[in-house]
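task queued by scheduler; priority normal; single chain, no ligands, no partner chains; default sampling; output format set to structure tokens
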Amino acid sequence: MSNKKVLVGTRKGLLVLEKKSGDWKIIADHFMGIPVNMVFEDSRSNTWWVALDHGHWGNKMHYSNDQGGNWTEVDAPQYPEGEFMKEDVPASLKYIWAFAHGGKDHPGSLFVGTEPGGLFHRNGDSTFTLNMGLWNQPTRMNNWFGGGRDYPGIHSIVVDPRDSDHIYIGISCAGVFETMDRGETWAIRNKGLRADFLPDPYAEVGHDPHLLVACAAQPDVMWQQNHCGIFRSTDGAQNWTEVSEEEGPAKFGFAIAADADNPQRAWVAPAISDETRVAVEKAVCISRTDDGGKTWQSFRKGLPQSYAYDIVYRHALIADGDDVLFGTTTGNLFASGDGGESWTTVSNFLPMVYGLTYIS
């Protein structure tokens, strides 16, 4: 069996991890000193994609077809002239926040989610085009807003492996949207969610899913770590049910990982609250459910339990079978080989970790 590998996007570059003889090691780095805010592998071609947030120079995109041996820059998505984020505020790219390939029946197709709430599509070597069906969604101009950033952002893109025309997106702050026709039309899928920060917590739009994921083997089972709790759907986002712990840490957080084969299993990385973005009781844990959110177990073995201020960004917790990894805002990177029940340290000396992804 080949060794597993992971890409790690950090505040100061891209790292490549490899698991050999049960241990994870850093084997390479790229883009030293540059923020790598999103990492992704197109599993159809094993192409690596990264989004860079240069600050002064703006957002950049690069890909590699040879596992980082060579990198090619492509033009980042650009909003068309005449489009507006808000009234009298011209639309412009602020951040690249999500990647997804367009399905096995659409080779070369790539979706990119951005701030300020635009979904872009690239077909082969063509330039990125803005999905106007979503951009012109009637609620966007007045009911979408930023959640921790200035403008709404698409951070989650879930393409149904059974039907590549069937796509979900998660937007902070707006909620979950679904298309059955590859983006021509979109439906709001926020039934059952709660937004305590809104005048009407059960408003149709304005929810803040921090991350939206689905079980690969049973894609109608979906999870989201939401600003106001953990929610699960078993009917393809038609209805959501809160599955947060009443007593325990599994409530607020940013990251969630769904087991690819077991629709009952998921992991979260708890934090105290929006106001206090620190590990619960300053003790890092990862919580796992094995029964669809009815109960949660919190695992701490090998994780810092005293004056730990770590939190985990939304894309920085991943699972592949019993292999689970997460990176933190304080530059710690941890790995588990037993489903999250015990942990080893990969490194305590990294820059802030933005995101992780398994690669072939």
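post-processing summary
- The mean pLDDT is 97.
- The helical segments are 132-135, 140-143.
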